[in-house]
Design goal:
Rossmann fold; seven-stranded mixed β-sheet; 322 residues; 13 helices; two-stranded parallel ribbon; alpha/beta; globular
Length: 322
């Protein structure tokens, strides 16, 4: 009977001698076999990082309502663009970092979500779920697969909210300096408390401020995260001002991580920004294949969380990129 090292070599030889597409299908088949229990209990043990992230999630769930909207912030529902169909009476805010799909199903069964629906009959009008935070899967995908090595780099999260991106950068990357800028005082306090409790202050800094006051920080950042950053929080004219300011301040070669794409974020705004001259899109085909395999339950699982993440490299700054 072959020993473990022989089996490893044979397995690697199989992967080496097939196309990328076949390799992806083969690995997905293996994962499905493992998840089904057909090969016995071979469940992968959680990493220390995963355990810590889950502990932070649990702490934050106890501090926030289900919708994770603080009493100190104002939500602006878009009047134009892809999210203009979000009706306040049937739109439910559920924080994706705090509640995954299974947890949302449990909330619906327990009628926790319904209590946060403004009005209107749920039997007549379907609910629309929206989140303003990155999910745990998105955070892991960004820092484990999508981004390059961040050793010695500065990561900036614009509108850091519950701090999901900050904790992810700390746990799953070697970034030297991780900064969250958040204008809402409630969320700033929550992040600061979490950073202190989990001894992350050596690399994480939380700043309570308007991003418009943080030009030097933007210009010195190697990676800037923009996750559903402005659309639901400020009116259209201020969104335009913020985007123009960002692109006038970012330095060349900075990597932008955005949800949704820059094209979608800017399509309804009058910014004068020419994206073709400002940025180049970074191909995520290979990271996406690996992320699907490692982070999703099966090859057929919904991967929209991952495919909504876009990466760009800044080509031109300190100009309107026109």
């Amino acid at each position: 009977m072959a020993d473990i090292e022989t089996v490893k070599r044979q397995f690697e030889a199989v992967l080496h001698n097939v196309s990328d597409d076949v390799r992806s299908q083969f690995l997905s088949w293996i994962k499905n076999k493992i998840n089904s229990g057909e090969w016995g209990d071979v469940t992968r043990e959680k990493s220390n990082e995963d355990v810590m992230l889950e502990s932070i999630q649990s702490d934050l769930r106890s501090e926030l309502p289900v919708n994770a909207v603080s009493h100190t912030e104002n939500i602006h529902f878009p009047q134009t663009g892809p999210n203009a169909d979000c009706d306040p009476s049937t739109t439910v805010h559920v924080d994706a970092f705090l509640y995954d799909e299974d947890a949302i199903d449990d909330l619906c069964e327990d009628q926790e979500v319904q209590m946060n629906c403004c009005c209107g009959s749920q039997e007549v009008q379907p609910l629309t779920f929206i989140t303003h935070s990155a999910s745990a899967a998105q955070v892991k995908y960004i820092f484990n697969y999508a981004l390059p090595d961040l050793s010695g780099k500065t990561v900036l999260d614009v509108g850091s909210r519950t701090g999901a991106v900050l904790y992810g950068a700390y746990l799953y990357s070697k970034a030297k300096h991780i900064v969250g800028v958040e204008i809402d005082s409630t969320f700033t306090s929550l992040q600061t408390a979490a950073v202190a409790k989990y001894n992350m202050a050596d690399r994480i800094q939380v700043i309570h401020d308007d991003i418009l006051n943080q030009g030097p920080l933007i210009a010195s950042s190697d990676v800037v995260i923009l996750n559903n950053v402005f659309e639901f929080f400020v009116p259209k004219d201020l969104q335009e001002k913020l985007w123009i300011y960002l692109f006038a301040t970012l330095r060349n070669n900075t990597i932008l991580v955005t949800v949704p794409s820059l094209e979608e974020s800017l399509q309804q705004l009058k910014t004068g920004i020419n994206l073709e001259q400002c940025v180049e899109s970074i191909d995520l085909t290979a990271p996406l294949q690996q992320g699907r395999l490692e982070l999703l339950d099966s090859a057929d699982a919904d991967d929209s969380d991952l495919t909504r993440i876009h990466l760009y490299r800044v080509l031109a700054s300190h100009s309107p990129c026109q």
